[in-house]
Amino acid sequence: MIDFRPFYQQIATTNLSAWLETLPLQLKQWEKQTHGDYAKWVKIVDFLPHLTADQIDLKTAVKSARDFPLSDGEQQRLVYHLKQLMPWRKGPYHLYGVHIDCEWRSDFKWDRVLPHLSALQDRTILDVGCGSGYHMWRMVGEGAKMVVGIDPTELFLCQFEAVRKLLNNDRRANLIPLGIEQMQPLGVFDTVFSMGVLYHRKSPLDHLSQLKDQLRKGGELVLETLVIDGDVNTVLVPADRYAKMKNVYFIPSVACLINWLQKVGFCHVRCVDEAMTTLEEQRKTDWLDNESLIDFLDPEDHSKTIEGYPAPKRAVIIANK
Questions:
Q1: 199 known member of a binding site
Q2: For the residues of 186-197, what is the DSSP string, one character each?
Q3: Is 260 marked as binding a ligand?
Q4: Are 100 and 56 in contact (CB under 8 A)?
Q5: Is residue 304 marked as binding?
Q6: Residues 179-221 pLDDT 10s
Q7: Can you tell me which residues bind carboxy-S-adenosyl-L-methionine (predicted)?
């Protein structure tokens, strides 16, 4: 099983130390009810070769390499093990010559978000719903002191640990398999990211309040989510599914979302980016054995989902506590 003790030691002398009052017991309880394939996925991570990278790039990509490349056979074995952890949704990763071409070009989103952020140098960051951790490594590449990701999905945890192992076991980023509703209000993070989470929450205002509870005074929230066109009172509540997703509850307009954030106490709320999700950004690859965006859109009219709703449009909102 994955050992969280190094993380406990890491935060024991930081302003995250109060988390140790609840976290170890929570993770012990989590381990008792994990996915049936969790043990298998952990073994796959253990089977990965112990390689030492001579070059690591987290500034322009998530990439590791050696001065002397792996042989074809070594690369094939690495691909074989990593493909046992499919589907790979957020990426891409470039590890010792192996290109993990994930469903999402998460670098596209990062390039849209990064210019609007307060400098991440020396910041302590929380990434809520971090998936396999792609954006966490890019935050480290921007000089973050510590990045903590939370996501309860066991497969994402094992994907993250696989990538970490192939990045010289870098400990500046850590993934904790919990949801934000399980976190005590720490109030210490300099920056909190919530990207692609809000529309999955049955109570979006509660989610925004939980994000605020993790920030220090003056800290920065980076919220990225689905939006629709409309005024301050416009919210889409899908009757059943949205783009084949059954767990989509509220999709607000940008004006409505700004109102929500102000209502729960955020200040300096501003929308810094809006973009339609393209078929270049989310698509099927050899690292995904599921459907992707092309299957979620009306085949006759890509401006609509297959259910007839407006096609996915995403906005980035930045606010302060």
A1: yes
A2: ---EEEEEEES-
A3: no
A4: no
A5: no
A6: 999 999 999 999 999 999 999 999 999 999 999 999 999 999 9
A7: 90, 104, 109, 129, 151-153, 180-181, 195, 199, 314
1 is in an annotated binding site: no
Q: Is 72 annotated as a binding residue?
A: no
CB count in 10 Å sphere of residue 247: 10
Find residue 192's DSSP bridge partners.
Answer: 126, 221
The CATH class of 4-320 is alpha beta
What's the token pair of residue 221?
């929230």
313 labelled as ligand-binding? no
Break the chain into its structural domains and give their ranges: 4-320
pLDDT tens digit sequence for 133-154? 999 999 999 999 999 999 999 9
Q: Report whether 32 belongs to an annotated binding site.
A: no
307 marked as part of a ligand binding site? no
| pLDDT one-digit tens code per residue, 264-289 | 999 999 999 999 999 999 999 999 98
Q: How far apart are the first and last CA of the chain?
A: 37
Q: What's this model's pTM, rounded to 2 decimal places?
A: 0.97
Neighbours of 33 (CB within 10 A): 7
Q: Which residue has the tokens 């925004």?
A: 208
The reply to whether 40 sits in an annotated binding site is: no
